[in-house]
């Protein structure tokens, strides 16, 4: 496993597993737990979840998957913007901890920017940190201007991560946000790194995957992971997909591969608003 080193001294695995649309149906719980346990067995010890996913169901499923091995996991959850007041953030975190059957989160994120002042949410995050309920905090879906606004808030500089949409078919963050985050030592968590699976039929991706004798998913992940300070959190309910995705860690894309991918998925030529889908 490769790691991103945080300014807190912690090391985060560059490849983890997401849980959106998990924990929604009881009948699928055993397969979902098995997929997460396979991921942990293979070293993908970063789990990304949120109070939103399955309205708490995903967090409960995660608790089942990491039973007996909480200490091995870098656990990330998120607060809904409509809960992100000074008091509401603390209460939401406590509900998440209960569902996750743990006493702390490694990273707690504001899911997207809402109407509560950032100063309130940050004050709550700092209080949760002081109480040992979270180790660090960050944000999600924050564009360049949102990050600048956050930096102006008291303790805003303690933000450790920005989780954003980043995959071959959506490269807008390459224009500026990735560099800004790198400069301020903010980890970028690439969500939907497989374009929710829709990317994977692209002939260019297939050609590069054939060359490396791997799955197109592994190439898509290797593409985002070649950037320093970036981690990726693909979701895979099928264990075969988890196995295929781990191959990303062995793949080094060369100049020829990158030319093929750039031709099919051009890099940004100008600034654009941060995409969320
Ligand atoms: N912060 C935010 O606002 C935000 C927004 C979206 C997502 N996220 C996080 O990011 C995670 C990942 O994003 P995502 O779930 O939107 O999409 P994704 O990871 O890009 O794609 C997931 C889809 O790809 C399929 N898949 C996985 N590996 C594959 C492979 N090797 N070959 C073919 N198909 C494969 C999965 O199928 P199976 O499940 O059938 O295996 C699933 O249908 C989420 O689960 C969530 O934790 C955060």
Q: Count the E strands.
A: 10
The value of Rg in angstroms is 18 Å
Strand order of the largest sheet: 3-4-5-6-7-8-9-10
Strand content: 5-15%
Number of helices: 10
Mean pLDDT: 97
End-to-end separation: 28 Å
Q: Compounds present?
A: NADP nicotinamide-adenine-dinucleotide phosphate
Gross morphology: globular
Biggest β-sheet: count, sense, barrel?
8 strands, parallel
Properties at a glance:
single chain; 277 residues; eight-stranded parallel beta sheet; two-stranded antiparallel ribbon; 10 helices; 10 strands; 37% helix; binds NADP nicotinamide-adenine-dinucleotide phosphate
Describe the structure.
This protein is an alpha/beta fold and 277 residues long. 37% of the residues lie in helices and 14% in strands. It has helices spanning 29-41, 57-65, 86-100, 118-130, 144-151, 177-183, 203-211, 216-225, 239-246, 255-264; strands at residues 3-5, 11-13, 17-18, 46-48, 74-79, 107-110, 137-140, 161-165, 187-191, 230-232. Strands 3-4-5-6-7-8-9-10 form an eight-stranded parallel sheet. Strands 1-2 form a two-stranded antiparallel sheet. Helix 4 (118-130) links the parallel strand 6 (107-110) and strand 7. Helix 1 (29-41) crosses helix 2 (57-65), helix 3 packs across helix 4 and helix 7 (203-211) crosses helix 8. The chain is globular and about 50 Å long. 45% of the residues are buried. NADP nicotinamide-adenine-dinucleotide phosphate (NAP) binds at residues 18-20, 48, 111, 140-141, 163, 191-197, 200, 215, 217, 233-238, 241, 244-245.
């Amino acid at each position: 496993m490769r790691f991103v080193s945080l300014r807190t001294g912690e090391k985060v695995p560059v490849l983890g597993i997401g849980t959106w649309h998990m924990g929604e149906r009881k009948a699928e719980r055993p397969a979902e737990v098995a997929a997460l346990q396979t991921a942990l067995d293979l070293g993908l010890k970063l789990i990304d979840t949120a109070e939103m996913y399955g309205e708490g169901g995903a967090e409960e499923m995660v608790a089942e998957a990491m039973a007996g091995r909480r200490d091995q996991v870098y656990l990330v959850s998120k607060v809904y913007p409509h809960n992100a007041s000074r008091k509401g953030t603390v209460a939401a975190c406590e509900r998440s901890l209960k569902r996750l059957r743990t006493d702390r989160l490694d990273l707690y994120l504001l899911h997207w920017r809402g109407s509560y002042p950032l100063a309130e949410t940050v004050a709550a995050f700092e209080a949760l940190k002081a109480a040992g309920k979270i180790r660090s905090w960050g944000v999600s879906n924050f564009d360049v201007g949102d990050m600048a606004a956050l930096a102006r808030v008291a303790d805003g500089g303690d933000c450790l991560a920005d989780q954003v949409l980043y995959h071959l078919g959506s490269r807008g963050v390459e224009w500026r946000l990735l560099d800004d985050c790198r400069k301020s030592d903010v980890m970028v968590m690439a969500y939907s790194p497989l374009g929710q699976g829709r990317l994977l039929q692209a002939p260019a991706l297939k050609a590069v995957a054939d060359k490396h004798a791997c799955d197109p998913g592994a190439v898509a992940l290797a593409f985002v992971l070649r950037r320093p300070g970036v981690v990726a959190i693909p979701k895979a309910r099928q264990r075969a997909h988890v196995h295929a995705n781990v191959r990303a860690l062995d793949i080094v894309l060369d100049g020829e591969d990158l030319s093929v991918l750039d031709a099919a998925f051009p890099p940004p030529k100008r600034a654009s608003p941060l995409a969320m889908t």
